[in-house]
User: Fold this.
Amino acid sequence: MNPTRPSVYFLILSIMLIGLPVLGVWWHGADVTAYFEFPPRTRFVEHAPFSWPAFVLVATQAVVALALIGYLLSGRRSVRHNGAGDAPGELPWWGWLAGAWLALVWLLAWTRFAWFAPLQEHTFAPLWTGYIVFVNALTYRAKGRCLLTHQPLFLLTLFPVSSVFWWYFEYLNRFVQNWYYLGIAEWSAWRYTWQASISFATVLPAVVSTEQWLKSFAWLNQPRRKPRPRLGSGNLWAWAGLLIAAAGLLGIGTWPNQLYPLVWVAPLLLVLALQQLSGQRSYLAPLRTGDYRIIYLPALSALVCGVLWELWNAHSLAQWRYAIPYVHRFQVFEMPLLGYTGYLPFGLECAVIADIVRRRLDDAPG
Assistant:
């Protein structure tokens, strides 16, 4: 197949990602204007109550996913991995500075000093900027290189891309309303836009930087002797993924209690399917050689960031809350325990987008 021009690929992808949820709601006769309230204040989705059978089913799936990651990490190392610049050393000065900044902002986020009141609700982005720099410093200490020092353009580009990236999940959340923000009822659309955009800009850099740090651990980053997947025709699986993603996005607003997990799965399937069918280089290409690091490293990275997101959210002034159908119990911070499973596919979505950004930068002239 001749590769589809990237502009056409992104156009088709954008139309499907944005248009299918609205089309599904309109097709079923619902009022689509409710989904475009901005800032989102109205909670109109009625969430299903807790269900033990559903909880057990989702918990079983989570155990299987974690067991699979454990299996991919098991086994003897096949080769010694030495990346360029792998030379453990001291934490650089800017890492100490970032660590001090992170500790200071964490303190300010969780306390209520009167003198800090005007800035109290603006701690999210400074906190995560400190984390991003600090985790890059940890990577630099372990490997002698990191995104901040050796790929600064890529890291900086991730910030605006991340803002657009997470705004899309905010859009999908309008159809399921699994999370909502406190204290925005009186905000203007402009204030909500700029304040949220700044915070959203830290998501991709945090996850991708964490993945680079995890790669500095030999037991996580060593190639393993695992069989290559034998799944037959790539196009056949791509069409199957495309149909599942399209059906999920079409139905997500009509059956939010049943289809809400597809918020994290459908966009990933859609991007990967269109990469395959359009002839673009697929993010999953390393699987052909049995390299599964592209699966478990991003998933674990997002899980690490997810725990920190929920931790730092717990006592901050600007907070979010959850409403998860069927499984909303056993909260760890504000997140129900099984809600953390959503971070695993989300990590893959972050990795796919970061891979696209990296390739576009590599292909740019000059």
